[in-house]
Amino acid sequence: MTTTRTAQELWALGDYDRVAALIADQGRALVAAAQVGPGMRVLDVGAGSGYAALPAAATGAEVVATDVAPELMEIGKQHARDRGLTLRWQVADAEKLPFADGEFDAVLSCIGAMFAPDQSAAARELLRVCRPGGTVTMANWMPDGAVGRFFRLVSRYHPASGDGPPPIAWGDPEHATALLHGAEVRTEPRRVQIDFSGPPDALAAHYLRYFPPLVATVADLDSTRAAEFERELVEFFTDLDTGPVGGPPSYAYEYLLVSARLPARTAVRRAPARPPAAAR
Ligand SMILES: C[S@@+](CC[C@H](N)C(=O)[O-])C[C@H]1O[C@@H](n2cnc3c(N)ncnc32)[C@H](O)[C@@H]1O
């Protein structure tokens, strides 16, 4: 039986920060791709515990980190204190951002806004709060990459409740470009190395313990199905390991970097108060 959970309830399960820490390079790469720098007004949507927001703030940008899960943002606040960084944290849904039109120079979302169920609403909001000429930069898992296979495995045991395209559709270049229509969109497949040197069964155990969608899946399965799921998950991470035989394991995920530049505001031409002299 699949329990219906709000996004806030789901992402408060387990401890996503322990998973995010394994792929911290992704947030840093996103901040570099968005060319975030001192004095820029930056919004991170679906910021979690801040793996993009914190490196953005470290550049000297003024950062607002938003998410539906306050529990994760509390962990992010502690990371910020530990690193001596100042940023603002605010609960907000990607589908309805509590900000004015054009308030930010750069809008970031590191595998965050892709999880909002109404993808068109989330895309509209990302674009709306970005200033003319500014950028929306996203990292989205790809449907034909390892994370796409991972989510298909999870959905065999724990079918998604909503209709509409799944989150992973945001990792398809055509789909992302269509959602962000009106902006000049570029996409680029990238990889992030998983910072985990243990064997596949240890990585599976880490995900089962900490990754919210897996904690929810196992909670909703009976013990026989849960054991089958755990076995398949170990197989998944075994296939993902590309390390040398007898050597240390090596795991990586593919994602789509999406960079969308909004059109610059076109100068409004004012009608002259009086016709030019030559015309009189
Ligand atoms: C995979 S985590 C990524 C977190 C963070 N960006 C990172 O890179 O570590 C997905 C995040 O999206 C958030 N999220 C899910 N649905 C959301 C929504 N509708 N609006 C805002 N955030 C949402 C979750 O709470 C979670 O923190």
From TrEMBL:
Keyword line: Methyltransferase, Transferase
Keyword Transferase: yes
Listed EC numbers: 2.1.1.-
Keyword Manganese in annotation: no
InterPro entries, per database record: Methyltransf_11 (IPR013216), SAM-dependent_MTases_sf (IPR029063)
Positions of the Methyltransferase type domain: 43-136
Pfam hit, one: Methyltransf_11
UniProt-recorded Gene Ontology molecular function terms: methyltransferase activity
GO annotation, biological process: methylation
Classification via PANTHER family: 2-METHOXY-6-POLYPRENYL-1,4-BENZOQUINOL METHYLASE, MITOCHONDRIAL, METHYLTRANSFERASE
Protein's name in the database: Class I SAM-dependent methyltransferase
Species this protein is from: Pseudonocardia charpentierae
